[in-house]
Write a structure and sequence with these properties.
It is built from 14 helices and eleven strands.
Length: 355
């Protein structure tokens, strides 16, 4: 499968990943290699990765605790101390093996350690393969507020080996699927249509879908790396989705929602808003709602939950001059950004979602 060329780096697939490492991670280029994994990927993915990683450069392993709750500056401090104690210098390489939490945090650690060292992302979850590891966004959460601290900095390469998906539970696979659905909704109706019937999906089909998702995101990011315009459409479903994810993280009575599960809800809500603002037809909205809820079910919200989520949304990092702007759909396959939305319409969207 041909590598996808991005701005300053390439995305490689399957066997080509390890050929890239063999040819590029050499003693002439790097003084030492550090591999960052969390407690899950360290056990499930790292043995396979290291078995195929042929290099003469010394390798050290860094392990962090798994889970979004650990995507914090405190975890970064621990990683920076570990790198220092193990002799990392500006010619060291950090390879992040894991899901979006690992690639986000690891990219930020590398981008800030000694004012920046090289890093490579090896996404092991479907979500990270199609979204988190592509596009140069790195960072951590601030409390329960998502991705409040970070930088945009591209990796040396992204290495996607779909065999790591065999280690994922079903809910993690669905979490990644949400971002793939988003790619179809915002800019490729034909791609969206491929998800209308997943009953005959094969492994080869999944690889092709992943490849297409990476191309879609890469095409958008390459035109607007720093998110001044077009790249904002990738935030469809995220304005409310991130607030929902944060709320479920901070409420001890709530069961934690995975990122994609929260974004799926956000996409239904923001599709309803699109419909009520005459950007989306009723048939289009109904199709979106039925497809997403058939895959993810419906999550219950009390009135107090909705008000708290709207309050959290006001801290969204995408807000400008005190106003939160939304990405909405102008038909399936096209998105518009910087759309203001009043709170009463958001409440109506929740009520329709629950109805």
């Amino acid at each position: 499968m041909q590598a996808i060329q991005s701005t300053g780096y390439s995305v490689y697939f399957n066997a080509d990943c390890y050929a890239f490492l063999r040819d590029n991670v050499t003693p002439e280029k790097y003084s030492k290699v550090f591999v960052l994994a969390d407690s899950n990927t360290s056990q499930l993915c790292l043995p396979n990765f290291l078995a195929q990683f042929a290099t003469l450069v010394e390798i050290e392993i860094l392990e962090i605790d798994a889970g979004e709750i650990n995507k914090t500056i405190e975890t970064c401090v621990q990683a920076w101390h570990a790198l220092t104690e193990m002799g990392a210098d500006r010619k060291s390489l950090l390879i992040n093996v894991g899901g979006g939490m690992v690639t986000d945090l690891g990219g930020f650690v590398a981008s800030t350690f000694k004012r920046g060292i090289d890093f490579i992302n090896v996404p092991t979850s479907l979500l990270a393969m199609v979204d988190a590891s592509v596009g140069g966004k790195t960072g951590v959460d601030l409390g329960t507020l998502k991705n409040q601290v970070g930088v945009i900095n591209t990796p040396v390469a992204v290495l996607i080996d779909v065999n790591y998906l065999d280690t994922l539970p079903q809910n993690q696979m669905l979490s990644g699927l949400a971002e793939m659905l988003k790619h179809g909704l915002i800019c490729n109706k034909a791609y969206w249509n491929q998800f209308l019937d997943l009953s005959g999906l094969t492994t080869d089909d999944l690889l092709e879908l992943i490849y297409t998702s990476v191309i879609i995101k890469n095409d958008i990011v390459s035109q607007d790396l720093n998110e001044k315009g077009l790249r904002k459409i990738l935030n469809f479903g995220h304005t409310l989705g991130h607030a929902i994810e944060s709320y479920f993280l901070e409420d001890p009575e709530k069961e934690e929602l995975l990122h994609g599960e929260a974004i799926a809800i956000g996409m239904v809500l923001e599709s309803y808003i699109s419909f009520k603002k005459d950007l989306l037809t009723l048939n289009e909205y109904t199709e979106i709602k039925e497809v997403i809820t058939s895959l993810f079910g419906v999550t219950h919200f009390r009135e107090s939950d909705i008000l708290n989520i709207i309050n959290i949304m006001s801290h969204d990092k995408k807000s400008e001059f005190g106003e939160v702007k939304f990405v909405l759909l102008k038909g399936i396959g096209k998105a518009v950004f910087n759309e203001p939305v009043k709170n009463d319409l958001i409440i109506n969207a929740f009520n329709n979602y629950l109805g």
